[in-house]
UniProtKB/TrEMBL annotation:
<protein>
    <recommendedName>
        <fullName>Phosphogluconate dehydratase</fullName>
        <ecNumber>4.2.1.12</ecNumber>
    </recommendedName>
</protein>
<feature type="domain" description="Dihydroxy-acid/6-phosphogluconate dehydratase C-terminal">
    <location>
        <begin position="408"/>
        <end position="600"/>
    </location>
</feature>
<dbReference type="GO" id="GO:0004456">
    <property type="term" value="F:phosphogluconate dehydratase activity"/>
</dbReference>
<dbReference type="InterPro" id="IPR000581">
    <property type="entry name" value="ILV_EDD_N"/>
</dbReference>
<dbReference type="InterPro" id="IPR056740">
    <property type="entry name" value="ILV_EDD_C"/>
</dbReference>
<keyword id="KW-0411">Iron-sulfur</keyword>
<dbReference type="GO" id="GO:0005829">
    <property type="term" value="C:cytosol"/>
</dbReference>
<keyword id="KW-0408">Iron</keyword>
<dbReference type="Pfam" id="PF24877">
    <property type="entry name" value="ILV_EDD_C"/>
</dbReference>
<feature type="binding site">
    <location>
        <position position="157"/>
    </location>
    <ligand>
        <name>[4Fe-4S] cluster</name>
    </ligand>
</feature>
<dbReference type="InterPro" id="IPR020558">
    <property type="entry name" value="DiOHA_6PGluconate_deHydtase_CS"/>
</dbReference>
<keyword id="KW-0456">Lyase</keyword>
<feature type="binding site">
    <location>
        <position position="224"/>
    </location>
    <ligand>
        <name>[4Fe-4S] cluster</name>
    </ligand>
</feature>
<dbReference type="GO" id="GO:0009255">
    <property type="term" value="P:Entner-Doudoroff pathway through 6-phosphogluconate"/>
</dbReference>
<comment type="function">
    <text>Catalyzes the dehydration of 6-phospho-D-gluconate to 2-dehydro-3-deoxy-6-phospho-D-gluconate.</text>
</comment>
<comment type="similarity">
    <text>Belongs to the IlvD/Edd family.</text>
</comment>
<dbReference type="Pfam" id="PF00920">
    <property type="entry name" value="ILVD_EDD_N"/>
</dbReference>
Length: 609
């Protein structure tokens, strides 16, 4: 017997519902209108239909007859991104699965899919966050053809799933399912990878040794196996009921993976407006689904990037969700999973131990998730508390049972930590996120003089020169969405980790991003307002810091303060805009971007809710 819904979940959910009432109502009106305006292919002119059907040689007769659903496939395939390489052959298979149930499928369009793992530390990373808006726009272009009765979204990684969801939600009258392709097999132990990275940062390992180690970690098609943003995406799609139940972490190329893909096609064909099981995306993604996604993020210690992505995804559905909501939920949701970098095992080991089926079962039983969300499965959200398998060739779901590895998965009654580890810090330096789940509790409070930098390359240079061998709060500013697109600052983790291992008290404060790949160093990230002033003038308080100012970063009292008299100082000048690697093309997005807490989106800030 499940417990009643937890009081904190009820309170936060009701607050989000009340806050979102005007925008959610406007959104629901939008998708009702869109459903009426784009509802019948037969209402489109014959010339338009002929253009749409001309390339579909095998399905032309079925499309002309119009008896079954026509499914739009939006794909983020490329074979530079390991997670998306398997998607190359998906359209042909998905079309076959559609024909099995009298439906048709067409590739509606493609979206870009950049890899943060390839661009980290490089100038291309400054395009990364806004690639999410480009993906949303690309998905909207794909679905703008009034040809589809449902959609399948092929994407996994960091900005790609949020972007696909934001774009698809503008066509929320369509039933839509997200189709993952699964993680690559496990490589070398994560601690060994981390060890070699730190040795390289100290100059004790060669570049060849570092590359050899990295190639043993990232070695084949499939999603990277640490619990970063990509795998946090998959977890959240399960928590929102937008996958076929249990799809997230089934490896590519397996018979079970193909059975789940087939089920996705059959389900989206069955959920159309003409049938008796209409489940449009815009009704699936409501306030309760957003809360479930946040709960999953907290319970599993997922990526801090979702402190930005979740508000943006929610806003695309007319739901207003902020960091106060996330922090309050974190106080009630225990950490019941430890997956690298929070633990030693990766997502394959997490799945083998019980995975998302175990997590969802525990959360539902303890009243820590909404059971009454509308999902894309055949039943309700309780189906997601089971795990998929094969009985011969038939797809079945089985009970998960207890955790198979209590170093990775524990029940709510005996969690790894009593809260979800995502805390909101506030003070005279602004608002910031602090992820405690990967940081030893002895380091939750750091008070030290700061050293101020305007980019991460300068931090690396100071580290190599020995200038940071002391207790220090490293401030890296002008990394927000309006400054340079809010890149992830991956290069900071190894040197700061080395300083910490040398016994120094070290913390990071930045208006940039880290991610689910960040680890043991205490960090106040996503600081808002950002340091960059831009045309609006002013700039955030980080712009007024100077070397030597005392800063307190504390996840116990949830404060982010300096003793310096910031009001008496002029802000540091904005850095000049850098061109190259296409960054100049994104100037409009930087100029109009919202703050991090609102989702750091130019698209939503300029009229998309």
């Amino acid at each position: 017997m499940s417990k009643p819904l937890h009081d904190t979940l009820r309170k936060v959910t009701q607050r989000v519902i009340e806050r979102s009432r005007p925008t959610r109502s406007a959104y629901l009106d939008l998708i009702r209108r869109e459903g009426d305006n784009m509802g019948e292919r037969n209402a489109v002119s014959c010339s338009n239909l002929a253009h749409a059907y001309a390339g579909a040689l095998e399905d032309q007769a079925a499309l002309v007859a119009g008896r079954g659903a026509n499914i739009g496939i939006v794909t983020a395939y490329n074979d530079m991104l390991s997670a998306h390489q398997p998607y190359g052959r998906y359209p042909d298979r998905l079309k076959i699965y559609a024909r099995e149930v009298g439906a048709t499928a067409q590739v509606a369009g493609g979206t870009p899919a950049m890899c943060d793992g390839v661009t980290q530390g490089e100038t291309g990373m400054e395009l990364s966050l806004f690639s999410r808006d480009v993906i949303a726009l690309s998905a909207a272009v794909a679905l703008s053809h009034a040809m589809y009765d449902g959609a399948l979204m092929l994407g996994i990684c960091d900005k790609i799933v949020p972007g696909l969801l934001m774009g698809a939600l503008r066509f929320g009258h369509l039933p839509t399912i997200f189709v993952p392709s699964g993680p690559m097999p496990t490589g070398i132990p994560n601690k060994e990878k981390q060890r070699v990275r730190q040795l390289y940062a100290e100059g004790k390992a060669t570049r060849a040794e570092l590359l050899e180690s990295e190639m043993k970690s990232y070695h084949s098609p499939g999603t990277c196996t640490f619990f970063g943003t990509a795998n946090s995406n998959q977890m959240m799609m399960e928590m929102m009921g937008l996958h076929i139940p249990g799809s997230a972490f089934i490896q590519p190329g397996t018979q079970l993976r193909q059975a789940l893909d087939r089920e996705a096609v059959h389900r989206v064909a069955a959920m159309g407006k003409k049938g008796d099981d209409y489940r449009p995306l815009g009704l699936c993604v409501d306030e309760k689904a957003v809360i479930n996604a946040a709960v999953g993020l907290l319970a599993t210690g997922g990526s801090t990037n979702h402190a930005i992505h979740l508000p943006a995804m929610a806003r695309a559905a007319g739901v207003i969700f902020d960091w106060d909501d996330l922090s309050e939920l974190s106080s009630a949701v225990p950490l019941i999973a430890q997956v690298y970098p929070n633990g030693s095992g990766d997502v394959n080991q997490f799945h083998a131990a019980g995975g998302m089926g175990y997590v969802i079962g525990e959360l539902l039983a303890e009243g820590l998730a909404h059971p009454d969300i509308l999902t894309v499965g055949r039943g309700d959200f309780s189906d997601y508390a089971r795990e998929p398998g094969l009985d011969g060739e038939a797809l079945v779901w089985r009970e998960v049972g207890p955790s198979m590895d209590d170093t990775m998965l524990r029940p709510v009654a005996s969690p790894f930590k009593p809260d979800g580890g995502m805390r909101l810090l506030t003070g005279n330096l602004g608002r910031a996120c602090f992820k405690t789940s990967a940081v030893d509790e002895s380091r939750w409070t750091i008070e030290a003089p700061c050293r101020v930098f305007d980019d991460q390359a300068a931090v690396a240079a100071a580290f190599k020169a020995g200038e940071l061998d002391r207790d220090v709060v490293v401030v890296v500013r002008f990394q927000g969405p309006r400054a340079n697109g809010m890149p992830e600052l991956h290069k900071l983790t190894p040197p700061l980790g080395v300083l910490q291992d040398r016994g120094f008290k070290v913390a990071l404060v930045t208006d940039g991003r880290m991610s689910g790949a960040s680890g043991k160093v205490p960090a106040a990230i996503h600081c808002t307002p950002e340091a960059f002033a831009g045309a609006g003038g002013g700039g955030g308080p980080l712009a007024r810091l100077r070397d030597g100012d005392m800063i307190k970063v504390c996840a116990v009292t949830c404060e982010l303060n300096t003793t310096a008299d910031l009001a008496s100082r002029e802000p540091a000048p904005d850095p000049r805009e850098e061109w190259g690697t296409g960054r100049e093309l994104f100037g409009m997005m930087r100029r109009f971007a919202d703050g991090a807490e609102q989702g750091a989106s130019a698209m939503l800030a300029t009229g998309g809710m």
